[in-house]
Write a structure and sequence with these properties.
- The two termini are 24 Å apart.
- 42% of the residues are buried.
- The protein contains five helices and 21 strands.
- The protein is of the alpha+beta class.
- A hairpin with a 7-residue loop joins strand 17 and strand 18.
- The protein is elongated, with a radius of gyration of 21 Å.
Length: 344
């Protein structure tokens, strides 16, 4: 089973949850930028949470399905269609053999995730299938998708196979090409995706090195996401962070996804999934883990406001999100088994 890439889009790559345990070699984890959307997308097709998905940025790919496939689309709304029919998001979708999935205008967000039952079957390199464009490993030869690529698909779960088999017996008497379920992953459970998001920050000890006035502005005024932003880091423009004393010599230290660095010009850089493993700029703080998917969907030109929270608050927010996701995963699994009659 495979999917053919007819049009590659601006930047479409194979991603999973990342390449962990390799920092000592200078290799970042990488993986999906919006881990929430990628994880839910896998849930909706019966995959494990670390199955490889396609991450599409701003403009989607054009894909031809050579076999019947169960897919889902989560994250940014890129106006997905098959022929002239809109393809709904955040729910399972049965794509028939021969269907061509196209994407159009980006209505909201920046990155869409397409999961396929069984996952994208590319080699595991250093513990992950994720594409690392910086080092050229993972995914398909360490690069973005190209026209003509054939994406192999792994073996679907028992639940996904039941839906595909059931739909195959029904479609001969059904004129509709694309099937989906009546149930879906509610927007009430999404992170705070919005046009002007609020991103919560846990301060680091080095924030004491900045003037109180500049810290006040950092948390009260909005910042603009600059076009120079990418999977490695988001460059922000707004009130200048001023240090109390001239910059002293300092050693580089470990950084991670969401670390807020302040270079000499006082304009924040927020490290994203493909960040470097160490950095020498002063660290203002760390983006709360639950807000990283929200930031990952902020396109250049987006106004972002920061709010200070404690480490304990960030931890409780993450635990609450995990609890909801696990409940949702159990619910989806039960509906996939019992809800085949709901395909419409």
């Amino acid at each position: 089973m495979s999917i053919e890439v007819i049009r590659s889009g601006l930047l479409s790559t194979v991603q999973d949850e990342g390449r962990f345990g390799q920092r000592r070699y200078g290799i970042h984890p990488g993986g999906a930028m919006d881990t929430f959307a990628a994880r839910v997308s896998n849930m909706l097709v019966g995959n494990t949470r670390n199955a490889a998905v396609i991450e599409m940025t701003m403009t989607g790919s054009e894909l031809r399905f050579e076999e019947d496939q169960l897919i889902s689309l989560c994250g940014a709304d890129l106006s997905a269609k098959v022929d002239d029919m809109d393809v709904p998001m955040w729910r399972p979708i049965v794509m028939p053999a021969g269907a061509v999935l196209r994407f159009g205008r980006c209505r909201s967000g920046l990155r869409t995730y397409m999961a396929v039952a069984g996952g994208i079957d590319v080699p595991v390199i250093m513990g992950s299938r994720s594409t690392d464009l910086k080092t050229g490993i993972g995914g398909i030869d360490g690069r973005a998708l190209h026209v003509g690529d054939k994406l192999r698909i792994g073996k679907p779960s028992a639940e996904a196979s039941m839906i595909l088999d059931f739909w195959g017996t029904k479609r001969k008497s059904d004129v509709h090409r694309v099937k989906t379920t009546a149930w879906y992953f509610s927007s009430n459970e999404w992170p705070g995706y919005r046009a002007e998001p609020v991103i919560r920050i846990v301060p680091g000890i080095e924030d004491r090195g900045f003037t109180e006035e500049s810290l006040r502005k950092f948390y009260e005024e909005s910042y603009l996401v600059l076009p120079q932003s990418d999977r490695m880091g988001y460059r922000m423009q707004g009130a200048v962070l001023e240090r109390k004393q001239a910059r002293e010599q300092r050693l580089s230290e470990a950084v991670t996804y969401g670390t807020v660095q302040i270079p000499a010009d006082g304009q924040p850089i927020i490290l994203m999934a493909d960040h470097q493993t160490i950095g020498g700029y002063p660290v203002l703080g760390q983006v709360a883990r639950v807000d990283l998917p929200i930031l990952a969907q902020a396109r250049p030109g987006t106004r972002v406001t920061f709010r200070q929270i404690t480490f304990r608050e960030a931890e409780m927010l993450w635990l609450e999100q995990e609890r909801h996701l696990r409940l949702a995963e159990n619910f989806i699994c039960s509906r996939m088994v019992a809800g085949m009659e709901e395909l419409r």
